Amino acid sequence: MKMSKIPLDKITFDTEFPSTLYSLEVYLELSPADFEKLFQKFRYHCQKGNCSFLLVYSTTESKTAKQQKIKSCKRGRPRHIVTGTPVAGHCHSAVVKSDGSARQCCLALKQSLDRKYQKPIARIVSKGSGIHAQNFVAYSLRQADSIRQGGDFSFTEFCKRNLF
């Protein structure tokens, strides 16, 4: 029995993001109300810069996070909750632009946050556009209590199609 070999030029990698994915790490303990204010700030700056973003609020440690379905004996989709070791509220973010780099949008967000708190609380990290970026998005969604996204690129649909 002979196995077929696929030449490297025939392989298509359609699981990459449209451009480099940037993460804005915010070093604050967040409440749900603070998360909503952060979401509004992301929405304003990303609409202005024509970027797409994913913002995830989490209160669970990533190593012990597990999603469970709760059946309520009602019709419709069952609710998901995340169980695991509780930690302080924090957020994970991802910003991508379909026609260029999203770094300028992230710089504007960082400057806005640093100016609001009058000290440096944010840092921009490049995650690339390949497997490292995909793993970061999957890691963020796995421990998500609340998911907010905006722009023309859907991170959850991308992950359902390519990762799960």
- Can you write the helix and strand succession as a string? EHEEEEHEHEH
Q: Name the poorly predicted regions.
A: 1-8
Whole-number average pLDDT? 83
Residue share in helix? 25-40%
What is the rounded distance between the termini?
32 Å
Provide tags for this entry.
single chain, 164 residues, alpha+beta, three-stranded antiparallel β-sheet, two-stranded antiparallel sheet, 7 strands, disordered N terminus
In short:
The chain has helices spanning 32-49, 103-117, 131-142, 155-162, and strands spanning 21-26, 52-60, 66-70, 79-83, 86-96, 122-128, 146-150. The protein has four helices and seven strands.
Question: How are the SSEs placed, and which strands pair?
Answer:
Blueprint: E1 21-26, H1 32-49, E2 52-60, E3 66-70, E4 79-83, E5 86-96, H2 103-117, E6 122-128, H3 131-142, E7 146-150, H4 155-162
Antiparallel strand pairs: 1-6, 2-5, 2-7, 3-4
Helix pairs in contact: 1-2
Structure characterization notes:
With about 160 residues, the chain is an alpha+beta fold. It contains 4 helices and 7 strands; from the N terminus they run E-H-E-E-E-E-H-E-H-E-H. Strand 3 and strand 4 form a beta hairpin. Helix 1 packs across helix 2.
